[in-house]
């Protein structure tokens, strides 16, 4: 299937969806307290979708029963919200998508509760920074796997982490998951050329152990086989009509983080 190319009007709708995603993830992180459940966080997301007149990208997707994915500790991605109470030291990853005017935004964050092990904090920091390096590498005129190589290269430079093999980023737009699939590992210089109008969701997923995972009996929750804790960060970004990148799910368009990497964002969105 061909990669969907968006015009500026369509990208502006994606920006609206992206801002709902950014606001909701910020609200969830600020609201999360020890003793709450991930079902409580799902309710916060439901209310914020309604407040913004948006709908969920996740609810009902292949039967998924919630509007957020909430993954705790060794659950790396695709966790279903439940009644488990969160405790100090937990690592929590929240993945969330919203639809405005038929266009999707998708992003994820990881954060800790209470007293966090320093190695767990580094895990999250490395994962988040690898995401920004992947976006910075995904410039107009480059190749798709330039992103993959940048993500992997940064992670490997920071220590020994497991980079999930079965899961990766994806194209996004009028549907949540589109071509192309974006690996978080591999050599640069391969795959489709990155061109104006592409929108891509970049999402590194790593563990403190190895890369091997299994899916639980709920047919969704992905856990590390060695029970090591995981982290997951994601943003949706585009190459705008001026050829510059813009992070649709970051409140500032990615300006602050990308400036650290020498990348100037578009001012069209």
UniProtKB/TrEMBL annotation:
Residues reported in the UniProt entry to bind substrate: 78, 177
Domain named Peptidase M24: residues: 13-239
Catalytic activity, as annotated: Release of N-terminal amino acids, preferentially methionine, from peptides and arylamides
PROSITE patterns xrefs: MAP_1
Residue positions binding a divalent metal cation 1: 95, 106, 234
Cofactor: Co(2+); Zn(2+); Mn(2+); Fe(2+)
GO cellular component: cytosol
Pfam families assigned to the protein according to its UniProt record, in alphabetical order: Peptidase_M24
The keyword Metal-binding is assigned to this record: yes
InterPro entries documented for this protein: Creatinase/aminopeptidase-like, Pept_M24, Pept_M24_MAP, Pept_M24A_MAP1
SUPFAM superfamilies to which the protein is assigned, alphabetical: Creatinase/aminopeptidase (SSF55920)
The protein's enzyme class: hydrolase
Cofactor comment text: Binds 2 divalent metal cations per subunit. Has a high-affinity and a low affinity metal-binding site. The true nature of the physiological cofactor is under debate. The enzyme is active with cobalt, zinc, manganese or divalent iron ions. Most likely, methionine aminopeptidases function as mononuclear Fe(2+)-metalloproteases under physiological conditions, and the catalytically relevant metal-binding site has been assigned to the histidine-containing high-affinity site.
One Gene Ontology MF term: initiator methionyl aminopeptidase activity
Subunit record text: Monomer.
Family to which the UniProt record says this protein belongs: Belongs to the peptidase M24A family. Methionine aminopeptidase type 1 subfamily.
Function: Removes the N-terminal methionine from nascent proteins. The N-terminal methionine is often cleaved when the second residue in the primary sequence is small and uncharged (Met-Ala-, Cys, Gly, Pro, Ser, Thr, or Val). Requires deformylation of the N(alpha)-formylated initiator methionine before it can be hydrolyzed.
PANTHER family with a match to the protein in the record: METHIONINE AMINOPEPTIDASE
Protein name listed in UniProt: Methionine aminopeptidase
Source species of the chain: Candidatus Nanopelagicus hibericus
